[in-house]
Design brief:
about 400 residues; alpha+beta; Beta-lactamase; Transcription Regulator spoIIAA; five-stranded antiparallel beta sheet; four-stranded mixed beta sheet; 15 helices; about 40% helix; elongated; binds glutamine
Amino acid sequence: MRNPIPDLLDELRERCADDDGGEVLSTIPELAKADPDRFGIGLCTIDGTVYGTGDAEHRFSIQSISKPFAYALALADRGRDTVLEHVGVEPSGDSFNEISLEQSGRPRNPMINIGAITTHALIGHEGISRKQRDKRVQQGLSAFAGRKLDVDEEVFASEQSEASRNLALAYLVHAREKLDGEPHHAVEGYIRQCSLLVDVRDLAVMAMTLAAGGRNPVTGEQVVPTWVCTQVLSVMATCGMYDASGQWMSTVGIPAKSGVSGGVLGALPGQAGIGAFSPRLDEIGNSVRGVRAFEALSADLGLHLMHAPEVASHVLYGVVEPDADGDGLREVQLQGTMHFAAVEVALRELEEVPDGESFVLDLSRVASATDVGRRLLLEAVERMRADRREVRITDPHDILGG
Ligand code: GLN
């Protein structure tokens, strides 16, 4: 095979597999039975190509990794304001099952249990039945994965039998009037949500859907609006890895979410969706090998979000000067993606065109434009035309039209 990526992932997995630190979760009886040596990694790209290595097709219950997706559904169904009235967006710095409430009684964020149970209760329309909500959750998470996800009834029953702590959290939120509906309904539905079965390839596709603005790269379905993904990824970046979120962001730099069954999901906006699974957990509750794998992926593939991309200075492909005898027009040729920083460079180049001189703006090498980039370019063209300059635009990909 010419593509070196599968080998690269195999090698990376092997390197991380020698770490057998950590313990399988013991508090949920059904999860305690997991084979501690399992280890798989999945990676999905923006065009829907999915790579897998190790135990890539082994299924496990999604657990807390369901939280960002449930948050996405609640935002899409009830709107940002209603969801924010009930659940905050600040890191708690506490364990995932702590009583992390703000003064107002609002859970601190949707990535810890108390906030996730509250978020679950907001999914669907107001007054929706418990059964209908379960269906909405199952269908919604399945749409993110691009295949129908099933509930592991044994995991569900096992966790239901040990639900005192989650019930206590739900009753506390209820007492502060921030929970929609009955506490035991919210907990039961939340536990069903946590019991959905996935493998690391599913996690990779789910992550890529978030990282692609809500459009599943495999099925093409727009699962939630783009603004929802911006909100969800922001909260994952600050709160996704429990009380290790700050450390994670500095070492790995990928918005992520982990779960107690040993899964870790990471979503790098516009680039990659990643899933990892290995059941042994560190003391915070994050998969030991999962964390190792993400550290290695981030370093080896240069995936840290805060690593500045080199784009702005490349926006100018070339400038063709008009002929000395006055024939021909000056041509400003742009390339790449027209986002704010790139367009800013281009606008200064346009500023160099002498007053009154006509010219050609060549966008044939431009791949795409953000709304802001498009608006700024159009505004510049309009101003130049008002200046009695002839501006011809070569725009075969309709960058300025759409
Ligand atoms: N279902 C688990 C719980 O509520 C999920 C927690 C987790 O994965 N961190 O305790």
